[in-house]
Amino acid sequence: MLIELTLIGIAGATFFMRKRNKDQLSVKTSEQSDSVNTRSNSSETLYLENSAGKKNFSLTKLFKDVKSVVSDDERQQLTKSADLSTGMRKEQENVNQNIILSAGAVTTALLGSISPLFSILSVTMIMYLARDLYKFIWRDIKSKRFFSLFMINGILIVGMIVDGHLILAAVGGLVGRFFVKIINKTEDHSKKQLVSVFGNHPPKAWLEKDGVEIEVDITAIQPGDVVVVNTGEIIPVDGSIKKGDATIDQHILTGESQPVEKATGDKVFAATLMLSGSIHICVETAGEETVAAKIAKVLENAQNYKDTLVIRGQEIADKFVPFELGITGTTWILKGSGPALTVMWSALGANMISLGPLTVLSYLQILSRNGILIKDGRVLESIRQVDTVVFDKTGTLTMEQPEVTQIHCIADYDEDTLLGYAAAAEYRHTHPIARAIVDKSESKDINLPDLDEADYEVGYGIKVRINGDRIFIGSARFMSREGIELPEITMDIQNKAESEGFSLIYISINNQLKGIFEIHPTIRPEAAEIIQYLKQRNIKLYIVSGDHEEPTRCMAEALGIDNYFAEVLPENKADLVKGLSKEGRFVCFIGDGINDAIALKSAQVSISLKGASTVAVDTAQIVLMDGSLNHLKQLFELVDQFENTMSTNFKATIVPGVICIGGVYLFNFGLLTGMVLYYLGTVVGVSNTLWPLVKYQKDEPIEIEDKRPCEVDGFVKTTSIRTKR
Length: 725
Known about the structure:
The protein is an alpha+beta fold. Helix content is 50%, strand content 18%. Strands 2, 3, 4, 5, 6, 7, 8 and 25 form an 8-stranded antiparallel beta sheet that branches. The termini are far apart. The N terminus and C terminus are likely disordered.
């Protein structure tokens, strides 16, 4: 008998040592792979959507996702920023060790018919594996918490052993350990994928120095440096394009469904993908200071909400404990110990402890990939309670750039001539009014005349010469300062502008006023559809604005909003939000970011349209990173789906238990059936939690490989310096 025990012990130890060596070899191989990673053998991944904008399901992609969740080679697929901490590695090692011990407990339990010593060894291993469970029970007892899920599990283990169900106890422990491993790996994978959405920084970058491009570590990049990026590469820094043009997929930051064209002077962001072109970027921020890195930090903080759900899940499970103990005791009296133990396997609500956090991580990932950044995970629950939405008018319902709606010709010049002169003067300027005038001229295909000279005074206006004529363009104040008389006819136009809340730009030729441009704010093209959607949800809508009564009323009528507040100072917006809350309304405030900080903080739910570039300082709980209202409907729909997923998960933790209890009394269910029902509910819950990720799965990535390797001493390497193209 001692020989048998010795052989079993040696076999177990050998298996464990092989497993540990294999893990160490895998880590070492991964580290070596990371250390020799070069530009030539790396391939960047581009996620492409079809022309219809639909996302196709990929069975291959799904298989790879599942494999990466449950396999030990996941490390090689993760970015450096998502590496496991030492504590998490130890936790995974403990889980693996416990699985090995659980397998040993099953083996020795099966051998119990040969010798009682095997049964004793199995019991010892089972109780050793449950040591932490009994520590938790003792902790609860000391804190006078006598009914908990831990107590149910502790009683169940002892009861199964005493009642002679040693094999089932060991098998239950083994299956449970496997589920713990799968759930832990899934949660860990979801965390890393969530952060890596914005942490996908390449370790190296190509720095331009004196006409050559030198490959340097990304940590060596400084503001003011010039970085070169080519087709298929990830942009490593934030900055502006100094030379070149490109097509860039930046949906990762903004949620834009289509790639955008970028040219000299345009801003680009780290972690976005170059689909085509070659650009030289003047670096503004790099490393941990980039927008993408800051967003990754925000998402790490948002994950903390899952801890709240863990506690809430445990509270749900604990509430059922007195009921389960009562039914168990009654069943013991009426039907015996076996059926009573089966009732204890009902475990009503127990799986919510793990399913809640997994659901949060899944939806945070889906939302972030669609340009909706959740900074506070609590809003995933609170947004469904919203019954009132308050829109800030300027910058939220209106676009930053206004439009020219009417041109008043004062003398003998027609609209096209005046517009051509004004557009020629404003052509090189980027402020919103200048762009509005230029866009108006482009829409009418007006050929712009050449300037003889130009003089621009900040805050006043522009002086130019065109074909020998001296032209002034600017405000009424600018005209008065230059001694240009405003005819009496302009008074009616000015009064209308003041009452309706639009701006006027004046144009004079050779010291005589010739025309006035009406500059009106532009309502966002998506605003009407969003307003209609919110009305369908029976949400009460308000507009708050610092503008006069008339323009605010006109916009409210145009959008079909019944309630508005006009002439409200920025510091008073928060008082209005608080007032609505005191009336019993659950308020969501939607503003354009930092300027509405106080009002955003005062609302139960706050949404900012300021965009990705200010996410680190934005006070809102939710940031729509494309700077528009386009994703607002999707936000509400995804939150609805989140609640439905949570509801289904709750049912998956209750229904199998109810069937188990009912089956004991109606169909004489045995212990094995009870265990199967419990684990079936677990499978359903985990599958339901992961289904949204499958539903919103991207197409299979297309790899674009760098074609510039060279062979040195039999090894494929990249050159560290490349000549300027």
